[in-house]
Task: structure prediction
Amino acid sequence: MASARVGSGLALAVLLLPLAGYGLARTGAVPEGTPTVLGLLCGIIGPVFLTELCEERAPFRHSSSHLTARTLTGQRSIDLNRIATVRLLTTFSYGGPHRTVVVCDTHGVRLGITTKRSRGKLRRAIEKADANAARGVPRPRVSRAARTYLALAPGQGLVVHTALAFLLLTTSATLYVVAAVRLGGQ
Result:
């Protein structure tokens, strides 16, 4: 858990690095265009690093109640009987959209699920939790897009989610680059 916080802090530091470049450029320690260069590099590296922090990597271990996988920040194990939230994270690359189902359990452990086998285990755990909700057990909060992606609900929620994710990504990337260029004095 501590390594996950360190990894997230490092990704955030990378995104804020152009501000340090701006401060150094103002004092004359580095050339004026440094924040622009840092902003362009960090604007690419930071978000990619942040999304990769919790994604599962081989080797995987599955049991009836836990899903365990290695991540960039170490091994993580999700308690499938205590799922708190499930959401869909969509990023984009040259091959098209890349989808990761981000699961957080009541212990605060977060894991990004990308494999078909892990999605199947998660789907069965959510179905079980939904069935147990009739007996007063709280059900996990599952986003509409995650339900659609996991084939738990029909609908066009995935199309809307993808369009909004693309719009948010392009808008935030544009604003980040504009801020970096402004800091660079260009």
The longest strand covers residues 83-93. The chain has a mean pLDDT of 81.
